Fold each of these.
Amino acid sequence: YISHPNGEKVTKQFLETGKYEVEVLNKRYPAKVYLHSPFDPENKRMHGNYS
């Protein structure tokens, strides 16, 4: 979950300039923000196209 520290709207620019981590079992790992799905960027699977 990402929120703006000043309570402002979270914008694309805000997301792209941030530094993020994911915590798993009390260990932090660097994370990247993807504004589009890296797995299915054109949403073909959502429309039943699995080829």
Note: The chain has a mean pLDDT of 89.
Amino acid sequence: MVNRKNTVCLPTHSQKRIPTYVVRKEEARALAEEVEALQKQLFVLQETRNSGDIQFTEAKNQTLRDFIFRQQLALASTSTMLFNHISSQTENPIKMHIHLPKQWTARRETLVGLKETKFRQCRDYLEARCHNLDMTKDHLSENQYEDADGNFRYQRFDVTRFQGKSLKQVYDALVFFMFNMEISISETLGDITVRDDYDTIDDDAYISNHRLVSKHDGVTTEANAATFAQNCNGLGSSSCAMVATDSIDEDDLHPYSLSEFVRRDVSAAVMLSEEKSRDSSEEDEEVEVVMRRAAFMKIYSPSFDVADNTLATMHERIAQWPKIMLQIVREMIETP
């Protein structure tokens, strides 16, 4: 049988600490070697024993179970390495630095100038994130953690399909939520959420600069963000729509008040497209709307005292926002 080792021995240096990713890499290598040894053991059993022998069958099954278990351990170790890498990043992949000046004309020019770059950035990320995914099925993954600066971070990615609905129906419901979310959030979570629309541009696309202020349990959070929404052409002859939101880093006209409020940032991307339904036949080209969505949220560590329970509740509530959006969109498109 294979000699299993529960620990991996690495050279130690009294002067230098071995990085975590090096340890994880060595653990993954050791697990891969053990998997290879188990495969060889299975081969030997198959060659030397009669397949009708009960003992052989039991040994074979146990070896297969060990093989699968070692593969799962290797995958778990790799997942940890990936999560450690993601959680060590200082910025999210769809974040753009946005600085809005005081003058209204210059503010508008800045937002309009960012629109195409923002859409392209979000589209590229969502397409890469969906690479090799089965788009005929729904998907959901989420992570939350505290970064090196004590800020709370929440990340969510999902794929949702809407059968029997048009792209325009889903897009209109999505835009309605994005530009009226304070109502839904207040009603669902019980928070007092107020929206200040600093500016709204409506030409070939919706562009909005707004501030959301939410109060819960005596603590007020604020978010200053820009939202972009537009119908656009997708790949080939299919149609698509994009909605993107990003936080404002610097606002000369409306600066953050960190001594009074807890800052909350959000970068989000939503892409709608029409795809062939998995239930449709070659003769019946029925389409469905597929929504790809990614959200990166951040609650800054407060610069004033906040009770631990209040902070924990704040973290739980921000994770509800993407769920509320999906709930409202579904309710709107199902309403006759």
Note: The chain has seven helices and ten strands.
Amino acid sequence: DEEAPLDYGDNILDVEPLEAIQMELDEDEDEAVIDWLYEGAKPLQHSKFVNGTSYKKWTLPLPIMANLHRLSSQLLSDLCDRNYFYLFDINSFITAKSLNMAIPGGPKFEPLHR
């Protein structure tokens, strides 16, 4: 690990972001979401599916939820085996990071809270 870390200001700050990815929706299969999925910042804000102005709780019917689940299947993990991560314990990792400890053979962390 003799390579210098990337500096945000020098390497990333001036880079223009790429264009957003938009999937091509089928008019028959994606009929439940095609009208509002790429609408803007807050789709369905003024519809009966959003509870009030808080935009925190949604009540979507089953066809819309099924369609969104099908569209998001590429992003969902297919790992259902609880033993898959048995060599990496996320709770121990977070505790070590919180306590500013060095993991043997691994990095030393800065404290999470200052």
Note: The chain has a mean pLDDT of 82.
Amino acid sequence: MRYMLAIIGEEGGWEDVTPEQMKEVMGGWAAFDDKLLADGVWVAGDGLQPSGTATTVKIGEGEATVTDGPFAETKEQLGGFYLLECDSLDEALEYAKQTPASPGSSIEVRPVMDYGDFGYVHPLDREKAAS
């Protein structure tokens, strides 16, 4: 089953980080990525630009409204994500505990929808079945 790990934390605080410190931080993420790949659970993942770069599309009745900025004004924002293929929620939680996220960050772990009962097969599942 696929699980999404949403990395949520306060934005900012990176202004005073030196290039050497940033390399160290990114080295931790690179090592974590390598572990996920080696364990065969990596499906997708990436970091996100700050929420100030977001554009929100709100779907209404018959029209969509586009606005600059994030939908919610809160200190904590989605900073990145992983999509993992794990055997169980417990396995996904173990990976979430190993992320090198900053202290105070949260990792929300959520199972991805299974649409099999509705006759829809996700493209990743179609690709897997074809190989």
Note: The first strand starts at residue 2 and ends at 10.
